[in-house]
Amino acid sequence: MKNKIILTIVSLIFIVNTNAQCAMCRAVLESEEGTATAKGINDGIVYLMAIPYVLFFGFAYFMYRKYSKK
Question: Structure pTM?
Answer without folding.
Answer: 0.47
